[in-house]
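Marked as duplicate of an earlier ticket. Keeping the data here for the record.
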Amino acid sequence: MFKVFAVLFLFALHVSALTLQKPNIYTDQNISGWMMSEKLDGIRGYWDGKQLLSRQNKPINAPAWFIKDLPPFALDGELWTARADFENIQSIVMDDKPSEKWKEITYNIFEVPNAEGNFTQRLQKAQDYIDAHHLLHVRIVEQKICHNSKELKVFLHEVVKKRGEGAVIKEGSRGYFDGRSDSVLKVKLAQDMEGKVIGYKKGVGKNSGLMGSLEVELENGTHLFIGSGFSQENRKNPPALGSIITFKYFGFTKKGKPRFASFMHVRKD
């Protein structure tokens, strides 16, 4: 019994040990000289040198050809196809059995965990490996130097105009770090957040007989109802109780609730 407990404990310890970089929100900090890139809206993939994992440390069932030549060192990036294609990406990446549609997926690297050197040097390590092994489905996310907030604003609007999600800016001089930090910031016209579905409110008027809004619980225990952003199909078949959804919002109310919350999609990773 003790041996079984010990094995389970070590397994749980291993699972909980996956700590990724997490950005804070840009609020007009001084970001002169930082690196900026497009924030890709896909499924995050962490390669630990042996297997591909989701942000929740779940194994991603990628086909053998996709991972067989990945490096013996860690990579962090986004499994992605194109802008405004999240639902398709998620259905491919989170499928229990990898399909032919994995040929649409590229692995877009934005960090090399635990590698030595500054941000540019870490990415160069991955680029050298990609080039040497001719990994056509693995790419480095393009990085640009940001000189001031005006330049960042122009870049952000260019991304959004192309139906992109937003931008990420990072203090490039730092060595590798994990966890949430002010040294990496996400920049969006609207922010997004996740919450757990805990209830429903019936629809009225044109939505009579359908779901009107979702009751959602946030990580900090806050509850709110989200009633916009849904298709008619969403309202006929709403996200299941206990599922995790992503929604966008514009700042907070005086009571600390996300303002103008609007449904985006269900997360399965």
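See parent ticket for discussion. The helical segments are 2-16, 64-67, 86-93, 119-133, 149-161, 232-236.
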